[in-house]
Amino acid sequence: MAMIADILLAAGAIGAGFYCFVLASRLRRFTDLERGVGGAVAVLSAQVDDLGRALAKAQGSAGGSVARLGAATERAEAAARQLELLVAALHDLPDPAAEEEPEEEEEPARPPSNPFFQRRREEASS
Length: 126
Hints:
This protein is mainly α. 79% of the residues lie in helices and 0% in strands. The protein has 4 helices and no strands. It has helices spanning 2-30, 37-92, 96-99, 115-125. The termini are far apart. 0% of the residues are buried. The mean pLDDT is 83.
C-alpha cells in the first residue's frame, strides 16, 4: 500500500511540475515585449507620449489662432463703426433726384413682335 501511495505522490509531483512548466511558458509569452501584453503596454505608452506632444502643439497653435482672430475681430468692429458713420453721413446729403426737374415721360417702347404674326397682319391688311 505504501508503494501505491508513493507512486501516486510521484505522479502528482510530476503533474504539478508539468503544470508549472506550462504556466511559466505562458507567462513568458504574456510578458514578451514584442508580442505579448508587455509589448502592447509599451506601444500604448509610446502613443500616449506622442498624443501628449501633439496636444501641446495643438494648444499652442490654438492660442495663436485665438490671438489673430481677436485682432481681426477688433479691426472688423472698427471698420463697421466707420461704415455706420459713413452711412449716417449719407442720410444727411440732399437727394439729387429731387432737385432735378422731372423729364417728360417717353412713350413706352413696344415689345418686338414676332415676324410670323407680323406677316399675317400685313397679308390681312393687303
